[in-house]
Amino acid sequence: MKRLNKTLLTLSLTGALVIGGTSFTSPVVNAVGNGPNYNGNEQVNTSILKTYDEMVNFLEKQEAKQDQMELEVIGQSMKGRDLYLVKYISNPDNPTILYLTQQHGNEQLTTEGALEFIKHLGTGKTKGILDNLNVLIVPMLNPDGAMGDVDFDLDDYIADGDRHLTRYNAVGEDLNRDHVNKIFPETQALHNNVLSEYDIDYMIDLHHQGAQSERDGELVSGSILYPTTENADPEVVHKSKQLGAVVFDEIDPTGWGHLGKYNGGSAETISRNGIAVEYGISTLLFEMRGMSDHFYDSYVLGQKSNGYLIKQTVNTLEVTARAISDGSIHDKDVAFWDTLQTQTTRTAE
Ligand SMILES: [Zn+2]
């Protein structure tokens, strides 16, 4: 009976999309923000997401193909999985950006997007971008959570498929609350072998948030925020805001993208704040809409949005790399932050 209801609801949703599809300006068709929703009536299957082993295989193949790319193991997860750093260092004097994905294991589309970006760096698609920029990428910092290989029960998680994905690491701890004490091997690998090792100017920390956040009455495709601890250097924060301006100007006007300001706190246990203070790195948090799996219905997003969200990630990485490489980031006006609305959560009808 439950399955029948699902089918009927999916059919009626599809019908609505076809009617809306007659107009290109229809937000129903174009905006991730008004795209498909889980709500128990759309398919969410984790088998379409790359496994950890598939990711490693992909990275090794790209390294063999790409002269400029270097793959390094920076440590191991609690369950012994190698953690990877992808490096493109053309000149140590160039500015350097770090892209970090999947500190939270159930926020996987950011990793899928980062892998696509890595592929582009090996082709003509991003020609010239690496001449004046070093790129570091840490994909899937929490592979145990991403593979559901954890010491706690995931039976109440929603998604179908070969595995469940969870936010937490193998012992149920949140890596993005560990950036001061650095207790866990995943966080230690990032700090000891990446953040302390390279002269990094910028970082984007990529996540997924719940599926019901909205700005100006429309569900968002994501939200962004700079460091908000008072201990961060004002110049570091200004450059973070410029990084955010590059992202906003790329994504928000697309029609399918709609960004809000993330409602985040000042705790330095979180990478956005802690890494800005400890290393003087200009950080940006980017939270994409909806998670790949969760026990909480309103956090999970149906997989029909995957293409847009991966594209949102790829475009974000490419445009920020380009803006730092050609220096245009330094001309970015940060005034939009003063009027960008903080997202709110849509309440169930
Ligand atoms: Zn997250």
Compile the SSE list and pairings.
Elements: H1 2-20, H2 27-30, H3 52-65, E1 70-76, E2 82-88, E3 96-101, H4 109-121, E4 134-138, H5 143-146, H6 185-195, E5 202-209, E6 213-215, E7 218-219, E8 222-225, H7 234-251, E9 259-261, H8 271-279, E10 282-289, H9 306-325, H10 336-339, E11 344-345
Parallel strand pairs: 3-4, 3-5, 5-10, 8-9
Antiparallel strand pairs: 1-2, 2-4, 6-7, 6-11, 8-10
Helix pairs in contact: 4-9, 7-9
Bound molecules: zinc ion.
The site of zinc ion has 3 residues, from loops.
Task: Kindly list the characteristics that best describe this protein.
349 residues, alpha/beta, Aminopeptidase, eight-stranded mixed β-sheet, three-stranded antiparallel β-sheet, 10 helices, 33% helix, binds zinc ion, carboxypeptidase, Carboxypeptidase, hydrolase
Structure in words:
The chain has a single domain (31-345), classed as 3-Layer(aba) Sandwich (Aminopeptidase). It is globular, with a radius of gyration of 19 Å. The protein is of the alpha/beta class and 349 residues long. The chain is built from ten helices and eleven strands. The strands form two sheets. The chain has an eight-stranded mixed β-sheet, sandwiched between helices. Helix 4 (109-121) packs across helix 9 and helix 7 (234-251) packs across helix 9 (306-325). The chain has helices at 2-20, 27-30, 52-65, 109-121, 143-146, 185-195, 234-251, 271-279, 306-325, 336-339; strands spanning 70-76, 82-88, 96-101, 134-138, 202-209, 213-215, 218-219, 222-225, 259-261, 282-289, 344-345. The chain binds zinc ion. Zinc ion (ZN) binds next to loops.
